[in-house]
Fold each of these.
Amino acid sequence: MISKNQLKHIRSLHQKKFRDQHQQFILEGIRSLSSAMDANGEIEQIVFTSSFAQKHAEILDKMGAYPQNLISENELKQLSPSTSPSGVLAVCNQIDFGLINPTKNVIYLDQVSDPGNMGTILRTAVWFGVNQIALSPGCIDLFNPKVVRSAMGAHFNLLWVGELSFDALEGYSCLGADHRGESLHNLNPIPEKWALIMGSEAHGLSPEIRNALDHTIAIPKIGTGESLNVGVATGILLHTLTQ
């Protein structure tokens, strides 16, 4: 049985100030939980419903290594930041990513504030083996529950994520994505050590960053439409840059 204090603590992690205070975050969903366990993430507690246990009996043995509580559907609704809880939720310690590796390529996010976009970019980066993400001031919290849910376990497969000044990218060839830039296909050769700079959908790249870029690159438009989602654009650009 879960205590009132435990319920209160988990609910508090919906807010950034308490995530920072406790250095913990909420993880939801079977795929995210499986990724955390496979990566030996520091899971402090797992709560799940009887319905989840009946549908996913294969994962219960794996979960047995961690403190856990069977809770009601109503309790889960109180704890979950989602409108449609998946049946399982975990409390994890925030990941200590250490220091950036200046020899590895990096994605720099310039004031990306949408949680779905942030999570998609993290998943996409891991898929293409680009495991360092730098965040400008003004980006959404890395451990926001909606970011974590959208990232589907990518947090546990990144080598480094952290806030970074753009000036700290000295030594990188800075490639900024902007629809007014030159076609990506004209970037030949692709720099050996690059930082891909992605701006928010609402505002694009900050003027001070745009003015400091080594290259401004664009994805050629074949059909119609005003713009691409920043997560989709990141995937297209990484497909070319990592070939």
Amino acid sequence: MEIERKFLIKEFPADLEQYSFHVLEQGYLNTDPVVRVRKEDDSYYLTYKGKGFLAREEYNLPLNETAYAHLITKADGNIIKKKRYLIPIEGTELTIELDVFAAPFAPLILAEVEFESIEQAQSFVPPAWFGEDVTENREYSNSTLSKKVF
């Protein structure tokens, strides 16, 4: 079960480049239900996501590079590329995943935080540099972005 909240941000945190990051590329084979292929650095995955916003089923299966290369050509719409910074939240075991999107989505920047429970997610107080909570705004889901026409 994936339990996460998603936010726009008002400003970058200080010293962003000090944090580790991943380079992601992903495409959507289907958006209802969500079936996605993703390259994360040198790892590859096929993901199925159930319905929902705050909480939903998610299954990740490993792929090899050849399978990913084949499947990404089958993706509908936009291929999404982004740099994901991993920013620990002091005093907790939580991590902010700060996604800085590449063209054509730039300058879109989203922060996601994953939680162990719905209660923990609902009681989360975001840092001051976070902006609007867009968890339940379909416009900011990656599967919707994959269908955006520019």
